[in-house]
């Protein structure tokens, strides 16, 4: 979870993620984790700037061949 997603927008100051969307996201992540656990897997969830969290996670794991990501589309 990127803390920057819970700040105001740069144009109008409205929150990017309000309380209802946050609740939906948390419930979705919890459900995904439970589904993966039933299949013998897990889900790593972290809070922080992705560029820091991913770097630290790669260092922690030590053996990572590929990292895939997508960039948020920003309107001008």
Write up what this structure looks like:
It holds the Pfam family DNA_photolyase. This is CRYD protein. It is a single chain. The chain is an all-alpha fold and 76 residues long. Helices cover 42% and strands 0% of the residues. It contains 2 helices and no strands. The radius of gyration is 15 Å and the shape is globular.
Helix content range: 40-55%
CATH A-level architecture: 3-Layer(aba) Sandwich
CATH topology: Rossmann fold
Which H/E pattern describes the elements? HH
Q: Quick one: how many beta strands?
A: 0
Radius of gyration: 15 Å
Beta fraction of the residues?
under 5%
Unreliable stretches (pLDDT < 50, length at least 5) are none
Question: What structural class do you assign from the helix and strand content?
Answer: mainly alpha
Could you say which overall geometry the principal axes of the C-alpha atoms support?
Answer: globular
What number of domains? 1
Q: In CATH, what is the class?
A: Alpha Beta
What name goes with the CATH superfamily? HUPs
Number of helices: 2
Q: What's the mean pLDDT score?
A: 86
Largest β sheet strand count, sense and barrel closure: none
N-end to C-end Cα span: 24 Å
Keywords, separated by commas or semicolons:
about 80 residues, mainly alpha, Rossmann fold, 2 helices, about 40% helix, about 0% strand, globular, DNA_photolyase_N, Cryptochrome/DNA_photolyase_1, Crypto/Photolyase_N_sf
Task: Give the SSE layout.
Layout: H1 19-38, H2 50-61
Question: In brief, what are we looking at here?
Answer:
The chain is mostly helical and 76 residues long. The chain is built from two helices and no strands. The longest helix has 20 residues.
């Amino acid at each position: 979870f990127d803390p920057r997603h819970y700040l105001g927008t740069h144009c109008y100051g409205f929150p990017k993620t309000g309380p209802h969307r946050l609740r939906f996201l948390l419930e979705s992540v919890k459900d995904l984790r439970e589904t993966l656990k039933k299949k013998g897997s897990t889900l790593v969830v972290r809070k922080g700037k992705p560029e820091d969290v991913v770097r630290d996670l790669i260092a922690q794991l030590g053996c990572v061949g590929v990292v895939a990501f997508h960039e948020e589309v920003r309107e001008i």
